[in-house]
Specification:
eight-stranded mixed β-sheet; Rossmann fold; alpha/beta; about 300 residues
Length: about 300
Amino acid sequence: MKTRLLSLPLLLLGLFTGHLASVAQAKGFIIPDSSTHTITSDTLGRTYDIYVKVPKEYHSVYAAQKRYPVIYLNDGPYTFQVASGVTHLPMNIGKLEKAIVVGLSFAEGENGMDSRVRDLTPTEDKGWTRYQTGGAPEYLTFLEKEVIPYVEKHYRADSSNRTLAGQSLGGSFGAWVLLTRPDLFNNYILTSGSYWYHDRVIFAMEERYAEQHNDLKARVYFAVGEHEDLEHRNTRNDMVGDQQALVAKLRSRGYPSLVIKDDIISEGLHETTFPIGFTRGVRWLFDKPQESHKP
């Protein structure tokens, strides 16, 4: 009896020790079919990681000659995980057109907010004393001249089918790219765009584009959370109203090649809109059959 009582604590100790060892040796979760690449930018003089996820079939023999659309994501440390998750199953089983997903990280060695505010704002707003702003033109050159060529050199990417997705400042950055370099991307998924930035400068840019062009070739999905309005955010920025105003302006131009779909996510918050909005946007853009592309 004493032996059994002695052995039980020893057994429990052994089990507990084994559990601790297994926890200590546990591996972190790795997103399937993904890899990380590091680019030191000649344009910016900074180093960025890019995260790339390819379709499950990518390395198979039967897909060896196939080229894929590419979805580029701002704020990659957050958005890449979301986009990889929500596209994984529907793309693998053929519900969505298969695509390569690319997440753009923050500059190496920098605070994420410092990096994104500088890189995703198109004009310098001196009212933002805490952050450097206005770096988007140089950052876009980095994307155009370095990131996109890198992806299209190392992966079987379809250069005629690029999508840009972004949330918050990433969303307004996407709208700025649409109006500045409309030839660079074919599709856009813009959620919770910060169209209020710098006294709503994006609206002046839209006016300027309309004065100089009679078409805008793109498919654009807009989404904002229902609770991103003045009442719920308790701020002076009505993000719901701003999206509605920008969409109305673009539609009023009558551009023959512009296709827009816009959503207000029921009960959506600024912090929760991207997963829902991205899922809806990618389904609209990549769903099968093709008829589902109609807004």
